[in-house]
Amino acid sequence: MRTHTSPRTDIDDLPANIQDELHYALKIIKRSKMPVVMVWLFGSYSRGDFINRRNVDEHGVISVYNSDLDLLLVVEKEGINYKSIRSLYRSLRDTPYIQTDPHLVFESTEQFDQALREGDFFYVDVIKEGRLLWDGGHPLVETVDLQPRLRRRKAEAYFRDWYRLATGLKNGAEYHYQTGEYPLTLLNLHQMAEHLLHALHLVWSNYKIRTHELEKLTREATAFYSPILQWIDHATLEEVELFQLLEEAYVGVRYKPESFLVSQQQAEALLEKVGSLQRTIYHACLEKLNEFYPEQTGNELPSTAFLDLEHLKTHTLPHAELTLKKKALEHATQQIKEVARLGAVKERELEAALAREEAERQAKEHAFQEKEAALKREEKALRRELKTRKEKEEERLAKEQALQEKERLEALLRERGIDL
Residues near 67 by Cβ (< 8 Å), separated by ≥ 6? Predict the structure, then answer.
C-alpha cells in the first residue's frame, strides 16, 4: 500500500489564455447541476508538452494544431447522466471565453477510488502528473499493491490488448509495403512500435507514459529492462537518420503527406528494425509474466505472428494481391481513358481544322462572288457609258451633217443670187 503526495494545484506556468480558459471552465462546472467533487487537469497541458502551433506552408495553406483541455471530473454517482453531460459540454463550447476544445472524462467517486486502489494506470497518471483544479473535499485513497496472481492477470490483459493492437498495425505495415505505399508503411510501423513499447511499460511497471516519442518510451523503459536500448543504439549516421524518419512519420504522414517521402530501401530497413523490436518485447513480456506468477491464468496470450521482411518479399498477401490487381486494372482503365481522351482531342482538333478550312473556302467563294458582281456592275456601267457616248456622237454627227447641208443650201442660193 502506498500513499500519495499532495497533488499539484498551480497553473501559473501555463499560457495566459489557457489559465483564463481554465478559470472560466471551473466557473461553468461549479454552476452546473452536476455534483462534482474533484476537477483534475491532465494530459498535455498538465505535463507541459502541449501543442499550440499555427503553420503556413509554401502554398499559403494554414494549418492549426492545438491540444485539447483534458479535464477529469469526479462526480457523485447519481450525478452522471447523459443529459447533464451534454448540458455541461454545450455550456463549455458555447462560451466565447473558451477557444480551446474541452475533452471531459467523467468518473464516479466509487469507480475513481476503486481504480486507485487497483493501481489503474490512467488514474495513477492523473494524480501523478495532473493538477487538482478544484477539490470539494473528497479524500484521495491509498493504492494497494496487487497479489502476484492478480498482478499477472492484470499484466496479461495489458499485454493481450496492446500486443494485439500492435499486430493489427503490423498487418497494416505489411499491406502498405506490398502495395508500394511506403509513407503509410512507416506510419503503421511507428504506431506498431509505440504500442509494443506501451505493452512493455504496462506489463513491467503497470504504468503507461503518455507520449508518441519512440526514443522517450525506449529510454524510460531502460529503468526496468535495459536490453531494450539496443534497438535505438545507432552505430552510423544513416541509422540515426532512419530512426528520425520513423519518429517523424507520426506527424509527417498525417499532416504533410505530399512532402513526406520514403524510399523502398528505407521502408525495408525499418520493417526489419521494428520486426526485431517486436520479437524482443514479446519475449520480454512473457518473461515478466512468468516472473509474476509461473502459471497462466487461462487467458489466451497473443500469437507470435512476427514481422518478417524476407517472407513479405516472396509471398504476396491475399488482400495486397487483390489491391495490386485492382491498381493494375485501374491503371489500364486510366490508360484506355487517356487514349480515348487523346483521340477525342485529336478528333476535335481535326473537326476544328476542317471547319476552319470550310470557313476559309466559303470566305474565298464569297469574296470571288463579290468581285464577280463588282465586275458585272462595272461592265454594265461601262456599257451604259459607251451607249451614252455613242448616242452623243450620233447626235453630234447629225448636227454636223445638218449644218453642212444648211451651209450647202445657202451657198447654192447665193450662187443663184437669191437673198436669204
Answer: 43, 44, 45, 50, 51, 52, 100
148-315: what fold?
Answer: Four Helix Bundle (Hemerythrin (Met), subunit A) (1.20.120)
In tens digits, the chain (420 residues) has pLDDT values of 454 568 889 999 999 999 999 999 999 999 988 899 999 998 878 888 776 766 665 656 555 556 778 899 999 877 788 888 889 999 998 999 998 888 888 999 999 998 888 777 678 778 888 999 999 989 888 876 667 777 788 888 899 999 999 999 998 999 999 989 999 999 999 999 999 999 999 998 777 777 889 998 998 788 778 888 889 887 788 899 999 999 999 999 998 888 999 999 999 999 999 999 999 999 999 988 888 777 655 556 777 778 888 888 888 777 766 676 667 667 677 877 887 788 888 888 888 888 999 999 999 999 999 999 999 999 999 999 999 999 999 899 989 898 998 888 888 888 888 766
Domain positions in the chain are: 16-135, 148-315, 318-420
- Is residue 229 helix, strand or coil? helix
Strand-pairing partners, residue 40, are: 72, 132
Q: Which of 69, 49, 321 is nearest to 175 (CA)?
A: 321
Contact 126, 207 (CB under 8 A): no
261 strand-pairing partners: none
Specify the amino acid at residue 83. Answer: K
The rounded distance, in Å, linking the Cα atoms of 344 and 334 is 15
Longest dimension (CA), the chain: 181
User: What is the reported pTM?
Assistant: 0.54
Cα torsion 80, 82, 88, 91 to 10°: value is -170
Cell of 59: 502554398
Place of cell 503507461: 208
Q: Classify domain 16-135 by CATH number.
A: 3.30.460
Among 241, 312, 244, 330, CA closest to 272: 312
What CA–CA distance (Å, rounded) separates 203 from 275? 20
- How is residue 120 annotated by DSSP? -
Where does 50-126 show beta strands of DSSP type E?
52-56, 62-66, 69-75, 102-108
Sheet containing 69-75: order of strands? 102-108, 69-75, 36-42, 131-135
